Amino acid sequence: MSPDDLLNDLRQRSILNDEQRQRIAASERSRPFSLHWELRALLYAGILLLSSGLGLLVYDNFDHVGHGILLLIIAAACVVSFVFAWLNRPPWTTEQATSRSAFGAYALLLACLLFLTLEGYAQYQYNVFGTRYGLVTFVPAMLFLALAYRFDHKGVLSMALTALISWVGITVRPLNFYFKTNFFDQKVVFSAIGLALVIGAVALVLERQRIKSHFTLTHLTFAGNLLLVALLAGLFNFEGLLPWFMAGLAAGCWLADRYARQEQRNRAGSFLFLLMSAVYGYIGLTYLYFKYLHPSGNAVAGYVYFIVSGIVLIAYLLYQRRSVLHESI
Amino acid sequence: MRAYNETWIENKNVVGQAERWHSRSLLTDEQLATVRKTYPVGFQTMNGFLEIGLFIFTIIATGGVFLLFVELLSIDDSSVFGLYCLIFGTGLGILNNVLIRRHKFYRNGVDNALVMATTALLVGGFNSQFLADSSLWLWCLVALPLLAAVVWYYGDTLVTFIALAVLYTFLFDLTLEASFGRTLLPFVGLAVSSGLFLATQRSRQRAYYDDAVSLTQWVALGMVLACGNYYVVRETNWLIVRSTLIRSGVLSPPEINLPWLFWLLTVGLPLVYLWQGFVRKNRMLIILGVLGVAGAVATIRYYVGILPLNVHLTLCGLVLISMAVGGIRYLRSPRYGFTDVPDEDSPDEFLVSSAVGTIAQTAAGTTGRDQPDDVKFGGGKFGGGGAGGGYS
């Protein structure tokens, strides 16, 4: 139904009076067309292209004489973006910042991306951090974390958390970072679990203190995924500690489930934790079933497992919908 | 008679429109409440994340049942297997109908999964039963009416997408049967895509098919851009003839017929899209036009570019940033009917307003409907309301 038809319909049912109908129709006709998100997407794409183009420029011109000038330009661009972002910073508040300039947040993003390029170059060329590879990720993690809170920027927060997670992977096993899956190493798994718990705990404390509580969901999404992936990795790889990881996974799923039910601020988003609980838990359960309980050579038992478990989880999710909605009312 | 209650779907649109007017203070709270009462929507309210989970586990359980019977009835003959697929698919379709009626599902994951499974089993079963070793285009031709029927009955977007893919595969494969098929191929693509787009524009829009129609338009307009793009045409042509040409010593893609025409289309079509998009205030055309321009720039660089990639990327980035910054500054106050102020089509605004609504609701202790859940993550229409074509 077009807006005009609907207006006529509403008039006929006397939900609207004539004056209001004309006002709405006029408003529909004269309302400008918003290009807000298209322009933001363009800006974002431009920033990504620019920073990857500059990164490539540095990489390709390593051995050339002119790379010093190039570096100077990038450093200057980074400083200019940051100064611009700082001049246009939102006023500090523990709540979500409401008044923000159109470009400040994007300038900050560009500054952060350029900082990574510069840092990578500094480490490659001058070996600033020596063999303490952990610092290469730890420094931007801390810097971005601080910037994210000061500038109220969720994108920079995600970058900070990503850096923090790779910091754990690198610090524990410096030699084969980036190239190998680290999750076959017990120390990495335990560090990941530790980090996830720390991030989660800090997020919940900050939430309680009402400091940037709209960041909680980002923190917990990172922490929850890291925790559950690490627990699954432990379950798959370390048979000796199986009972512990089983208990850990069960506890992790229970926590995610619990959090989804209690969370009130962002109801729609909190359902993500129900999904995480169901999917990660199901992967663990299926692994355990086929490894320890499944009678070998009996295909029927496997199919029955999938049928029963699938139906149980469907019922669980449908039930959750009801109970969560019920509690929220 | 279709799978879902059509009146409820129409009412859903009405209530959505009324909510948008309400958020712009054009309707009072009482009026919105009256609209909700007058246009009831009986569907389950669900959350996008739960729907994803329900979809996954429905597929798992269905797969289990399917394989269990294969095992128990020891079906290994291919002709019996086809028949089994048909019977099982029909059974699933009936089950889906019962569930939709009983649980008032509307694209809640379970029904999506069952629609997919039913379609796959019916199409696969029919083809393996009756067309064991036939050509690809015949296979697609037989599948098309079935897919069309599923789209007609459910209005499902995923099946619509598959139906479109099968339609294009059918036409392209059939065209290539002809001796002059390679030359004809891009023109078939252009003609069919434009035809599809015009057909969706002419047809009377029913709320039931909003998403399917919108998806068809995205695909059709995107295919027009692709079929007119010089790089795509030349490389596709190369893919088809490569094996024969390499044997005769040709190692790189040969020039295509009518190159000037495709260069013209590569550059011209996106510009036409942008022009029409701005004239008609059509979000879909504007977005595709911008993507098309990006494709045209990449194509030009590929064939006649002189700048190295790093400089090219840097320059493109700078151009995009300055265009966006210029646009944002220019549209601070509305001009020529365009503005930078986000409207209700904007996803972020939608989330913010719904979050605010939730807080207000819990604070006031009002119950209302299952409000907090109204934000649909997965099922949304890509590109927002402009794509529907109704509100421009």
From TrEMBL, chain A:
Write out the transmembrane intervals: 41-59, 65-87, 99-118, 130-149, 156-176, 188-206, 271-290, 302-319
Coiled-coil residue windows: none
Pfam families from the xrefs? DUF2157
**Known InterPro entries for this protein?**
DUF2157 (IPR018677)
Q: Which residues form the DUF2157 domain?
A: 9-155
Instruction: Enumerate the UniProt keywords alphabetically.
Output: Membrane, Transmembrane, Transmembrane helix
Q: What is this protein called?
A: DUF2157 domain-containing protein
Q: Which organism is it from?
A: Fibrisoma montanum
UniProtKB/TrEMBL annotation, chain B:
Superkingdom of this protein's organism = Bacteria
Transmembrane regions: 52-75, 81-100, 112-130, 136-154, 161-178, 184-200, 212-233, 260-278, 285-304, 310-331
Region of interest: Disordered:
363-392
Keywords, sorted A to Z: Membrane, Transmembrane, Transmembrane helix
Query: Which spans does this entry mark as compositional bias, Gly residues?
Result: 377-392
Q: What is this protein called?
A: DUF2157 domain-containing protein
Q: Which organism is it from?
A: Fibrisoma montanum
